[in-house]
Design a protein that fits this description.
Elements lengths: L1 E3 L23 E13 L6 E13 L3 E5 L6 H8 L7 E6 L2 E2 L5 H11 E5 L10 H11 L4 H14 L15 H13 L5 E5 L7 H17 L3 E4 L3 H4 L4 E6 L2 E7 L1
Parallel strand pairs: 4-9, 4-10, 7-8, 8-9
Antiparallel strand pairs: 1-11, 2-3, 2-5, 5-6, 10-11
Helix pairs in contact: 3-4, 3-5, 4-5, 5-6
Length: 254
C-alpha cells in the first residue's frame, strides 16, 4: 500500500445520467479544496471547528473508507459530500460542478440525481413496501409509474429481495433492510455512493454479505465513499483516509 501525504454560480446545469466507468481509475469524480466547516451555537462565542482546511480528490471507480474517532470530522465530511450540509469556506466539486454555493433547491437536485445514500439505520419509509421505497426517488424526478416499477424490480432482484418486494421494512431482517437501502441508493444511477457505517447495526455474518455487495459495486467501477470505525471494513477499500480533529492525518492507497 502507498501512503499519500495529506494536503491541507448558483444555477444548476443540465444533468445527464453518467455512464459507469470501466476505464483506468484516473478521473477525479469529486474534489474538495481548502474545505472548512465551523459550527457556532447561537448566542455563544465558542466555535467548533469540524473540518480544518482539507483538500482531497476522490477518484472515479474507487472505494474509499473515511475513518477516525468520534469528533474527528468524518461524518461532517460525508454530510458535505452528500450535499446535506454546506462548507463554511472552500469548494466542493462533484463531477465537474462546484456545488459549494448552491441554494437548497440546487443541493436537493444534486442529491436526487447524482448521489446515492446508504445509512446505518437504513432510513426506509416504514409505511411503504420495499418496491415503493425504491420508487420514491424516481417519483421526485418525474419518472413515469411504469418505468419506476420496472427499474425498482430490476434492482430488487439484483439484491436478492424479489420475494420480499411487497413486504414493509418492519417485516424484514436487518440485512434485508440494508440490501433494500443499497438498491434504493442505486435507483438513480448515482455518480457516487455514500455509506455511513453501513454494517454498524448488523451482525458479522450479515455485515459480510452487505460488504460483498459493495465489493461487487466496486468491481463494476462504482465510486463508493463510506464512513466506518471498523478496520476490517476499511481494509476492503482501495483507499483509507484517516481524520483527526478536523484534519486528514493519513491517506493510504492500495
Amino acid at each position: 500500500m502507498t501512503k499519500i501525504e495529506s494536503s491541507a454560480s448558483n444555477s444548476l446545469p443540465a444533468i445527464t445520467t453518467p455512464a459507469i466507468p470501466n476505464q483506468s481509475k484516473t478521473s477525479v469524480i469529486a474534489s474538495v479544496r481548502d474545505l472548512v466547516k465551523t459550527y457556532r451555537k447561537p448566542g455563544a462565542s465558542v466555535a467548533v471547528h469540524a473540518i480544518r482546511s482539507v483538500s482531497i480528490d476522490f477518484i472515479e471507480g474507487q472505494s474509499v473508507a473515511i475513518c477516525g474517532a468520534s469528533g474527528s470530522g468524518k461524518s461532517t465530511m460525508l454530510n458535505i459530500l452528500g450535499c446535506l450540509d454546506r462548507p463554511t469556506q472552500g469548494e466542493y466539486f462533484l463531477s465537474g460542478t462546484d456545488v459549494s454555493e448552491f441554494d437548497d433547491d440546487g443541493l436537493s437536485q444534486i442529491r436526487g440525481e447524482r448521489i446515492g445514500f446508504v445509512f446505518q439505520s437504513f432510513n426506509l419509509i416504514q409505511q411503504l413496501t420495499v418496491l415503493e421505497n425504491l420508487e420514491v426517488p424516481l417519483f421526485y424526478q418525474g419518472v413515469s409509474p411504469s418505468e419506476r416499477k420496472e427499474q425498482a424490480e430490476k434492482l430488487i432482484e439484483r439484491v436478492g429481495l424479489a420475494d420480499r418486494a411487497d413486504h414493509r421494512p418492519m417485516e424484514l431482517s436487518g440485512g434485508q433492510q440494508q440490501r433494500a437501502a443499497i438498491a434504493r441508493a442505486l435507483i438513480n444511477n448515482p455518480v457516487i455512493i455514500l455509506a455511513d457505517e453501513p454494517t454498524g447495526n448488523l451482525d458479522t455474518t450479515t455485515g459480510d454479505m452487505i460488504l460483498e455487495i459493495f465489493d461487487e459495486l466496486r468491481a463494476e467501477g462504482r465510486t463508493v465513499i463510506m464512513v466506518t470505525h471498523e478496520p476490517d471494513v476499511a481494509e476492503r477499500c482501495d483507499r483509507i483516509i484517516t481524520m483527526r480533529d478536523g484534519k486528514v492525518i493519513e491517506d493510504i492507497r492500495s
